[in-house]
């Protein structure tokens, strides 16, 4: 495949070695001196990554790690720390209590990746998770990526600064540019042609800061041997292009989601219009001049948007035009495309349409991310993407929502089945959550599977996982994890809408409370974790998991109280309605808020203050905070994608979700008292004022946790354990 040769260029071996050694020093401090790290591309002989672990003679170095790339060496280092030192690293914390002395290996160990790529990142995560990151947070993430073996990932920050330069060179004025870019929290959908202008404009300081952030991201990723994916032109243009080039052939796409054309309906250039190549090549040349290139580019033209025509010839022309605009700037270009569109609109994307879009690009010059392969694999009904290489991806999370969830059996077997598929063109595995910093176990599992030749014994694996995560064996904690593994983490079939608990949805009388697992398993896991608290309560990762499992139990309890409220209302039982509603609004939700407020990673203030910290003026700080508040609540001016990016955070539960529930219960009580029927439309109008009021309330929320997690969880347990 041409793609294998085109992505072979990396940082030099010495540079990668130094980058991995610096990573080890950041991770292990002085103890890094007892580990020898080296990079030797010859190990892979041109194939997928390989690492070797062994203990050399003498006492100075406990273990030596050699890898075919910086990433392979880092993955080998984590293999040693995980399997021989009992360590653990995740978004929610690190458990790095190293044995002293470091253990020596009795025999050499080799790890070989079964595929060329281990990919990471969803375009949406750029907004749902990364929007307010500074370099310190990016540095930690890139370290985690390297230790996880990730070798292919996008770097999309700062592109608006380059686009602004290109638009100005084409003749657009600043007002026309400002009416195109969205605010920072919504840039992912501006880049995919879904959204324009909403929550903008972008201040000049934003462009400058993101540009310099991108320099550091790209440099660090490349230094570790990762292939960096840069953005490319997908065909969408600002309306101002039509003023400068009145004869250009551009057509407005339809509205996206629940947005009207005030903020949607972006112009798409006709693939045959000469300006398509002019703009696309101009942008990519400018981008390459700024950041260099690894020859892989991402572009998504029809993300959740119906193309202007289903004619296969038109679709082939579109993909051909996009690819030619890439090769006009970089003859070695490869196109990386998210395959979400094919499963999202299967009625439109029939085999003829899929084949036409894919075959507009020479075979081997496109990589498709089979984005939701754990639930809706597209490769199975497209003959392995009709010959184009693809990456089997786990999507897992929507909107960055909180909520225990996984499809562990599907991800434990799915990648291996895809490799065995007739004429398979699979070239790797990928993690593509819309939001991160949740469900660490699932991502640790998927990263390990990226280096395995066969599925894992999951009950045994999760038992070892719990021991590594908490730094000590504990029978109760291991039992809790095995319960969670077989229930909440083992959704089967097509698993969607799994983060739509009544807790985080606008209340109504028609809410779905169905679960894909036995709720009693979560309650029992809660009991088991609490019983382990005396032994494990000093572990930061244990306290995180205790908050998360208690939160899940409370989420289930909210559904139970909702059902009692609904039943009481429908039965005209006012005392029961007052009782159930009172417990929910005045005790359960405040207690849940207190629990979340006891942990730094569950604080609303952290999200909001990170947004404000990106600002260089009070005006920018206000804009960024409004962006941050809107994204996790109304998602648009009028609740266009209401609660899609919901979070369960201390401060948000009390001042947003609880206030909605209080109003709902009050309206139901008033309905029973007055004899007037409940009207959802009227309630929606009233509750919208509550929701909008939260966005503009200007209250500052704590960034430091308060309260004892164990004590609050135990208090909730004693009150509510069924």
From TrEMBL:
Pfam annotation, one family: NAGLU_C
Annotated catalysed reactions: Hydrolysis of terminal non-reducing N-acetyl-D-glucosamine residues in N-acetyl-alpha-D-glucosaminides
Enzyme superclass (EC): hydrolase
An example molecular function term from Gene Ontology annotations: alpha-N-acetylglucosaminidase activity
UniProt keyword annotations, A-Z: Glycoprotein, Glycosidase, Hydrolase, Signal
Domain Alpha-N-acetylglucosaminidase tim-barrel per the UniProt entry, residue ranges: 118-453
InterPro entries, per the entry: GH (IPR017853), Hex-like_dom2 (IPR029018), NAGLU (IPR007781), NAGLU_C (IPR024732), NAGLU_N (IPR024240), NAGLU_tim-barrel (IPR024733)
Superkingdom to which the source organism belongs: Eukaryota
Domain (Alpha-N-acetylglucosaminidase N-terminal): residue spans on this chain: 18-103
Sequence ranges assigned to domain Alpha-N-acetylglucosaminidase C-terminal in this UniProt record: 461-719
Gene3D superfamilies assigned: Chitobiase/beta-hexosaminidase domain 2-like (3.30.379.10), Glycosidases (3.20.20.80), N-acetyl-b-d-glucoasminidase (1.20.120.670)
EC number: 3.2.1.50
GO biological process assignments: carbohydrate derivative metabolic process; system development
Database matches in SUPFAM superfamilies: (Trans)glycosidases (SSF51445)
PANTHER family: ALPHA-N-ACETYLGLUCOSAMINIDASE
Family: Belongs to the glycosyl hydrolase 89 family.
Protein name: Alpha-N-acetylglucosaminidase
The organism of origin for this protein: Picathartes gymnocephalus (White-necked rockfowl)
Biological classification of the source: Eukaryota, Metazoa, Chordata, Craniata, Vertebrata
